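Per reviewer request, we include the raw input and output of the structure prediction for the construct analysed in the revised manuscript.
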Amino acid sequence: QVQLVESGGGLVQPGGSLRVSCAASGLTFATYTMSWHRQAPGKERELVAAISTGGITNYADSVKGRFTTSKDNTKNTVYLQMNSLKAEDTAVYYCRAQLIFNTQTVRDYWGQGTQVTVSS
């Protein structure tokens, strides 16, 4: 059974930093594209950052230069380092694992989410 378990969320002051993690099990981690998404109250879920099987990253414009995603294939874990946090970064952050074959997603898994709140 595939599980994605996020951790590391919490309350942080504006300008602060936080790192969230997503530990995967039940899948061949290195073959999955991993991504982070977030959903704020009353808003649609949006892509924040992604990292390909080859380690190529991309980011939403709103977080470029502030957030960094990385992964450790030996630990089956993907990370999202968030710096210079703003109130508008407040959301539930979700981890996603996609197995992509010939540009098609053939397996798609989501974590349960972790709350990040940026407030003074």
